[in-house]
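Notebook p. 47: complex prediction with zinc ion.
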Amino acid sequence: MVILGIETSCDETAAAILTNNQKRITILSNIVASSASLQAKYGGIIPEQAAREQIKAIIPVIEESLRQAKLSPNGLDAIAVTYGPGLIGSLLVGVETAKTLALVWNKPLIPINHLIGHFYANWIADATPKFPCIGLLVSGGHTDLVLFTDHGKYKYLGGTRDDAAGECFDKCARLLGLSYPGGPEISKLAQKGDPEAFNLPRPMIDSKDLEFSFSGLKTAVANIVHSGQVTGDSKKHLAASIETAIIDVLVDKTIRAAKIHKVKNIMIAGGVAANQKLASQFQLTINNEQLSIKLHIPPPNLCTDNAAMIAAAAFFINQPVDPLNLQADPNLTL
Ligand code: KG4
Ligand code: ZN
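Predicted complex, structure tokens below:
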């Protein structure tokens, strides 16, 4: 089977073509056009502007995905599209394009929840997750722990009560005068910093539940910045301290979820999963505690928003709908 995935939930316009013809899911093409550098000028996303950029990019991006996969539309078996959650203007561009192409090309149309889609980046690999599996979604808008018992079968275990982990990276980066998106910027600066230089809070790390909170961490960083302590080298030390504080909480709660539910597979997904220190800290904790847990993290380009994960999800959640009935849903949840 060959699936074209389309993803336009935020400021990335993405199309990818994947096949499961061999023993594994393989990427034939994976195109991502981002308006992040445009948005960076304003320190964050302006929804109206993101939607306009989506409209400009969507057809060239889909054409390029077909060209790189060396396929005509005849070679496709289905179209998968993100239908929520996200910015409504951005979502509409992908959803309406996918509906039109499904009707004109006469292909089944498979709607995919963006949040679930992120997890399926873990199935574009030789070693794929085994159920039951704890999933940690860490993106710009989400920090969620989920227990998966099968494809499409999952239970929400807990999430953030305020800011998401990615949002915390972005807001702290802004306080440090770094550009958007903040996660990669903080991470780069943190490489040469001392993570113990600033004593930052690890919100809710000792709470027995599987909930998170990151707004207090951001406030602590704001107080440090506004007190004038951040000059010269101390900026990189603060960046390292922020990164480590966020990672400590994510690793601790996720490992706790795996222990509570006695699972041997953990999968991480979403933009923050591209963070290399998060990956190494997870593996270090698993090794130190001698846990028999297999950790799954997609390669960085499949952690941030992309359409390959949307097409990958459609191989497992293959529930086509009538294109005329599909509606974008900006508030869709897990
Ligand atoms: O999944 P994603 O691309 O978009 C959403 O669905 O939200 O996630 C974007 C988020 C941003 O907050 C960005 O700062 C963060 O992921 N991010 C990172 C890294 N790369 C992206 N955070 C920490 N370290 C990174 N290397
Ligand atoms: Zn996302």
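Notes: The longest helix spans residues 234-260. The chain is about 40% helix and 20% strand.
Next step: compare against the earlier run before touching the bench.
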